[in-house]
Amino acid sequence: MKTFITDDFLLNSEPARRLYHEYAEDMPIFDYHCHLNPQEIYEDKQFSDIGEAWLAGDHYKWRVMRTCGVPEEYVTGKASFQEKFQRFAAVMPALVGNPIYHWSHLELLRFFGIEELLDSQSAPAIWDKANRVLQSPQGTARALIASSKVRALCTTDDPADDLQYHKLLAEDKSFGTQVLPTFRPDKILHVENDEYPVYLQKLGAAAGVYIRTLDDVKTALKQRLDYFASCGCRLSDQSFGSPDFTIWDEEAAQEAMRKALDGEAPLDYEVSAYQSLLMDFLGGEYAARGFTMQLHLGALRNLNTKRFQALGADIGCDSIGDGIPAASLASLLDRLALRDALPKTILYTLNASDNEKLVAGGGCFHDAATAGKVQFGSAWWFNDHLDGMEKQLRDLSSISVLSRFVGMLTDSRSFLSYPRHEYFRRILCRVIGGWVEDGQAPADYALLGAMVQDICYNNVAKFIGIEG
User: Fold this and answer.
1) Cα 273 to the chain's mean position, in Å?
2) For residue 380, which phi and psi values (nearest 5 degrees)?
3) Burial of 340 (0-12, 13-18, 19+ CB in 10 A)
4) What pLDDT is attached to residue 109?
5) Measured between alpha carbons, how far apart are the two ends of the chain, in Å?
6) Average model confidence (pLDDT) for the chain?
7) How far apart are CA 382 and CA 77, in angstroms?
8) Cβ neighbours of residue 107 under 8 Å, at least 6 residues apart?
9) In a 10 Å sphere around its CB, with 0-12 CB exposed, 13-18 middle and 19+ buried, how is residue 222 labelled?
10) Residue in 362, 365, 314 with CA at minimum distance from that of residue 341
11) pLDDT tens digit string along 424-458?
12) How far apart (Å, rounded) are the C-alpha atoms in residues 386 and 456?
């Protein structure tokens, strides 16, 4: 059966169709948050097959395969990629209603020209056709990025990383896409994790600092922030569950670190004190360097202990947590704003019940320095589907100013994820076009079209700052 993805996929009104085809469709992409491997970009990785490209690290697909009863051998196990692809194809018909059904068929169509629906019967032919592209010059990592009109992208990088491949990419004038690092200090922020003491040694070695105190941590982080800035970094990213930034207790913060180094478990209060102190420090350092601070909130990670012990993190066993208390977020932002040290900030929540809270709370800290200084980020992870994106757009527009929104990102480890930007843009035009259809917005296409183009690309390029 042929694909359901027509030229007007998701565009359910004439204004939506006009906004998408005339304004959104051909805009370039700035993928300002992803998890691509910069080494694979530099080396222009050639994938062996679509099984590797699709299933080697995609925990979204792993979750639905497990849900459909696929044995772990064919998910993360030792089965061949062809066997894994066949098993994934077999469950695809069961995924109607899940965004993976949309994403997968968009990717098949855009990268490989495949119009057939994926199932167990069509899988062998689709396998062969996709692999012919992936094994050709059009199927390398750089070619996939370029064909998606990606003008710039930001990877996610540990403070101790040497950024070797970012430096090599910056020197390589043959590749037209900027590849910038993002400073992600999660391992130093989560003092409660078992690997914290070992990581301190790694960070200290990278910075040339012997770390035993919080002041040592700050010294090391400042050194690494300067290094990241010299390599083109413009963003940071932090991930939390439900942090409590209302706690300010320097003695408790020091105690959390002491206990972690001595192999003891710090108390929740001490962990919160440590994180409050360090985020206050980091926020000021980001502001001083012009970095944008991203906060991902509300994730509950590694729920399945048995699977975590067997496979590690990021394997599809994370979930939606309780989000962040309103007072907690306000405390962090306010402390920074009080001393004029609040950086440009993007807030994401995994718990959609926090949408209005984050929009309203963040909106208290705008200023004239940057339009939309505290952003409510795109629908994240379990929310980046039709309903979740529409809710995010409506909540943002109802409480704040949609036209200043910095738009979509992939948040993906896959080079085949760029049609997610198309998916978002269709939904954006669907929402705005619906307002025109309902008489809630003027049929002024120059006005609305400029707004759409700003959200697709212009706003984020200006907000974060890239050339071109």
Assistant:
1) 27
2) -110, 130
3) exposed
4) 98
5) 42
6) 97
7) 24
8) 54, 416, 417, 419
9) middle
10) 365
11) 999 999 999 999 999 999 999 999 999 999 999 99
12) 17
Q: Which two tokens stand for residue 106?
A: 């968009």
CB-facing half-sphere around the CA of 35: CA atoms within 13 A: 9
* pTM reported for the whole predicted model: 0.97
Beta strands 150-154 and 29-31 are parallel
- Per the domain annotation, does 6 fall within a domain? no
Q: If you count DSSP H runs as helices and E runs as strands, how many of each does the chain have, helices first?
A: 21, 10
96, 244: one domain: no
User: Which CATH number covers residue 107?
Assistant: 1.10.2020.10
Q: Which run of H or of E encompasses 320?
A: strand 319-320
Q: What is the DSSP string of 70-136?
A: --GGGTTSSS-HHHHHHHHHHHGGGGTTSHHHHHHHHHHHHHH---BPPSTTTHHHHHHHHHHHHTS
Which tens digit of pLDDT belongs to each residue from 360-390? 999 999 999 899 999 999 999 999 999 999 9
Q: Are residues 125 and 163 in the same domain?
A: no
The total number of structural domains in the chain stands at 2
- Structural domain span for residue 113: 46-139
- Spatial separation of the C-alpha atoms in residues 458 and 454, rounded to whole Å: 4
Residue type, 137: P
Q: How many CA atoms lie within 13 A of 55 on its CB side?
A: 28
Integer angstrom CA distances of residue 394 from 359, 376, 378: 11, 12, 12
CA atoms within 13 A on the CB side of 147: 19
Q: Of 1, 3, 7, 10, whose CA–CA distance to 423 is shortest?
A: 10
Whether the Cβ atoms of residue 300 and residue 281 lie closer than 8 Å to each other? no
- Report yes or no: 344 and 370 within 8 Å, Cβ to Cβ: yes
